[in-house]
Amino acid sequence: MTHTDRPLPSPAPNAHRARLAQSSAAATSGILAAAVAVAVGHLLAAFSAPATSPFLAVGSTLIDLAPQPLKAFAIETFGESDKVALLFGIGLAVAVAAAGVGIVTLRNPRFGAVAVGLFGALGAAAALARPTATPSAIAPSLVGAAIGIAVLLALHRLYARPRTSGDAGDRGRRRFLLAAGAAGLLATTSGGIGILVGRARSSSVGVVDVPVPMDPAPVLPAGADLGNPGISPFFTPNDQFYRVDTALEIPVVDASTWSLRIHGMVDREVVLTLDELLQLPTIERDITLTCVSNQVGGPYVGTARWIGVPLATVLELAGVQAGADQIVSRSVDGMTIGTPTAVAMDGRDAMLAVGMNGQPLPPVNGYPVRMIVPGLYGYVSATKWLNDIELTTFDAYDPYWVQRGWAAQAPIKTMSRIDTPKPLATVPAGRVPIGGVAWAQQRGIDGVEVRVDEGPWMAARLGSVDTLDTWRQWQLDVDLAPGRHRFQVRANDGEGVIQPEARAEPFPDGATGWHTVVVTAA
Length: 522
Ligand SMILES: Nc1nc2c(c(=O)[nH]1)N[C@H]1C(S)=C(S)[C@@H](COP(=O)(O)O)O[C@H]1N2
Ligand SMILES: [Mo]
Known about the structure:
Elements: H1 13-47, H2 54-65, H3 68-78, H4 82-107, H5 109-129, H6 139-159, H7 166-202, E1 259-264, E2 270-273, H8 274-278, E3 283-290, E4 301-310, H9 311-318, E5 326-331, E6 336-340, H10 341-345, E7 351-356, E8 359-360, E9 370-372, E10 386-392, H11 400-403, E11 415-420, E12 426-427, E13 430-439, E14 445-452, E15 458-459, E16 461-462, E17 472-480, E18 483-493, E19 515-521
Parallel strand pairs: 1-10, 12-19
Antiparallel strand pairs: 1-2, 3-4, 4-7, 5-6, 5-10, 7-8, 7-9, 11-13, 13-17, 14-15, 14-18, 16-17, 18-19
Helix pairs in contact: 1-4, 1-6, 1-7, 2-4, 2-5, 4-5, 5-6, 6-7
The structure holds ligand MTE and molybdenum atom (MO).
């Protein structure tokens, strides 16, 4: 290496360093301004209408706009944490954009202020476009943005002073750091209080006294639960019940002011308060609920003992007109779900549920009232936070998921799942119990068969039948030689139809295929 190959020393390293310091102060100011704007908006929304938080409004809008493959990817990759991942992603994107806005502000403060204003407008537009929004929905985003602009410009004034060296420069730097710290504190306290207020509000939403059902469910038959702790318990505890919905923040519904409107193609419009609803005859039923986006072997299925009022009873109060073949139910957060009227009226235990395993519905599962329709996937039947039922036709209206390409009619497909052993587990060679659950709501499960390493199908022992609408546990003990083994399971429904082998993705009307698990015996 010769002398001339060496990089030339920078002519003015101090000036360079000062510029760098100023740029990073500018970027930091942008991020702080955005954090204050979002956090103040979130706080204001928490006190009024949580869904109008700029962060949540943009998140919900992205959920609604996301193309199907992206949704499927998110659910598969993040599972029930998909929403956390989304919010994290938005936070990251906002931070990067805000740093850019900060740098621009260094050159052109007016431009920076306009940029923050535009972000605020974006949040306001998202909040206003939510299905249940009122005009005041724009307030949190706009007020947040205004305060964010003030923070941006105040910080700009501090870091953009001509750099002086010595004591004056140090004082300037200290002032900037102090102001930046104050902005950071404002963002974290308003954001933190906003989150706490949101949580506190969602846990004080009036009280539902779960009624003693006039028509109770019989005691669970002996042997419905095989007693193998590796198999999903027959009743899924409420705190372990799966959750699938588009709600970034659990809707807060006050049971004491809740009402349900039944309208559309009916003889007379009916509005029921919770007390009025629960004065109607109540039933208690065991029903297994399933999500259409459940993959073969997936977790989005659970069984509960539900208490509620038959949907048919409520519909008869209003008088369904001829030709109204679709029930569109809506939730307080604007979800729309379409259910065939015929299904609600055919004698199955479709209900408006208020109780789940003896408790009021947990907030995540639809408090205070949700629909449950045995035999249909949740997205065409199980409206949570229900507050509106409209009688219409399939021709006249496509509900939320149908607008996004999912099937309008979606009966639950026969499915069986291996719960134990877990995929890729190592088990002791010798006798190994294989077990799981199988479901075919409305048709029931008549048999479950297992095969090992593509050998002959062997009938599993079945838990006793509770109802046609609940899953059955199954178990088969097999002898395994040391080495790798592959189990497969398939069920027979009550109509003698074997669960199909062909693999289908959940989209557009439910997955099919045999659940397969590979383990090593050692
Ligand atoms: N309001 C509302 N209700 C909803 C949904 C939703 O996104 N919003 N998702 C539906 C879907 S797809 C399913 S599978 C079930 C899930 O009910 P769970 O979360 O209580 O298990 O709720 C249904 N009801
Ligand atoms: Mo679902």
